Amino acid sequence: MEPLGRNRLDPRVLAVIERLAGAGHEAWLVGGAVRDTLLGRPFHEYDLATSARAEVVAGLFPKVVATGLQHGTVTVVTGRLPVEVTTYRGAGAYAGGQPREVESVGTIEEDLAHRDLTVNALAWDPLRERLLDPFGGAEDLRCRRIRGVGDPLARFEEDPLRTMRAVRFASTLGFVLERKTRRAIPPLLGRFAQVAVERIRHELEKILRGDRPRYGIELLRRTGLLPHVLPELLDGFGLRQNRWHRYDVYHHTLRTVDATPAILPVRLAALLHDIDKPRSAAPSAKAPGEHTFYNHENTGAAHAKAILLRLRFPHRICDEVALLVREHQFVYSDEWSDGAVRRMMARVGKENLDHLLAVREADIRGRGFYVEEGLANAHALERRVRLLREKALALTVRDLAIGGREVMEALGEGPSPRIGEAMEWLLGQVLEEPSRNDPEQLRALLATWKSS
Ligand code: ATP
Ligand code: MG
Questions:
Q1: Topology of 6-136 in CATH?
Q2: Which residues line ligand 1 (CB under 6 A)?
Q3: pTM (two decimals)
Q4: Which of 115, 177, 187, 190 is least surrounded by Cβ atoms within 10 Å, i.e. has the fewest?
Q5: Given 3-state DSSP classes, what are the helix, strand and coil percentages for the chain, each rounded to the nearest 5?
Q6: In this structure, which ligand is nearest to the CA of 97?
Q7: Where are the domains of the chain?
C-alpha cells in the first residue's frame, strides 16, 4: 500500500486543515481521498471531518458555498479547489436514506463508527501524521475486501442504500464482498424501495463507469439487489440464443458492457441493447433449439428509454441511448454503396457515430462465437465511415449548399411544410451523390422535384 504523507497532500487542503486547527478545531481528512491514496489510485474530491460547526467553518474562510448547512456541510473553495468540510456526524446522521440534521457534535470516532464500510472509515490527520483506523479498514484494503463497519446489518439498517454501495465499491475497486457483509444484504431488500431513485442511479452509474461493470452487475444479481435496480435484465437470464452466441442474453449483455470503453451512454446502451430480446424471442423456424429476436432493436429502444427515465437519467442521455439501441443491429457488407453508408451516417448523426461503432464492436466481442469475422466486418465499416467523414460531407439539411430562403425563392413559394420536404429530398440526393451539393445543381434539382 502507498504511504500517506503530508508532502503528498495538495497544499491547499493542508492550508484548510491548518486554518481549522489554528482556530482550535479538530480536522481530519476522510473518505475517498484517504482510501484511494492508500490504494495508489486517483481520486476526485477532498472530504474533511471537523469538530467545528458548519457556521463556524463558514466564518473561517473567505470563499465558502453553503452546500448543506442543515447537514453540517460547507464547501470551502481554495484556489479553485473545492474541499467539503462536514461537522462530525454521529448515530442516525444518515438514517432514513438521507443525511439528517445533527444536533450534538460528536467525536471523530463516533463519526467513523457510522460510516458505511471499513475502507471508508479511515481518518488521517496530516498535521500530526496520524491515521485513525478503528475498524481495520487498512487491513481490508490490503486484503482487498469490502466489509461493513462494525455490525454490517446495523449499518445497512441505518441506510439501505449502503447495500448497493458495498457492491459498488467491490466492483470499482475489484474487491471481494466479505461474507458477513454479503449476508447482511438480503434482509434489507424489503426496505430498498424506500431509497431515493437518484441515489440508486448514482451508484449504478459508478458501477458502469468503473473497470469491472460485469462483476458489479453480477454481484447485484447474486445479492438479490438487481430486481430492485434493473429487473428487466433478469428476463434474459438463461435465455438461449442461436449459433452466433456462446452465452445466454444476460451473460452476453454483461460481456458486451465490459467490452465497451467507460463512456456512460455507451455503457448504458451496451447494458440495454438487447433488453427486448426476451419479449421478442421466437423459436427459429429453420434451426430447432435456436431463437430469433425480430425487431427487438426498435421496441428495445423505447423500452430502454423508459427504463432510463424511471431511473431519472438526464433526457439527453436517455435519447442518445435509445438511438444507439435502435441502431445497434445492422448487418454491414462490402456491397453497401457509399450512398448507403452515408444514409446510415445521416440517420445516426455525426456526433453519435463513434459511440455506435463502439457498441457494435463490443456486441460482437460479447457474443463469444464468430468474433474475428465480426470484428473484421465492423472494422471494414469503420474505415469507410472514417474516409467519408474526412470529406466533410453534408449529412443534415443544415449542411446543404442552399438554405430555406433560397429554396423558397427557387420554388417561388412562401414558408410551408413543403419547403422542409423539399430540403429533405435534396439531402437524399446529396447523400446519394455528394458532388450535387452545389447551389446551381441544387436549384436544377429543385426544378425537377417541383415538376414531379
Ligand atoms: P467516491 O467519491 O469515489 O465515490 P467516496 O468514498 O468519497 O467515493 P462519497 O459518496 O463521496 O464516497 O462519500 C464520502 C464518504 O462519506 C464515504 O467515504 C463514506 O465514509 C461516507 N458516506 C457517504 N455516503 C454514505 C452513506 N450512505 N452511509 C454512510 N457513509 C457514507
Ligand atoms: Mg467522494
A1: Beta Polymerase; domain 2 (3.30.460)
A2: 31-32, 45, 47, 94, 115-116, 120, 159, 161-162, 206
A3: 0.88
A4: 190
A5: 60, 10, 30
A6: 1
A7: 6-136, 144-229, 234-393, 397-451
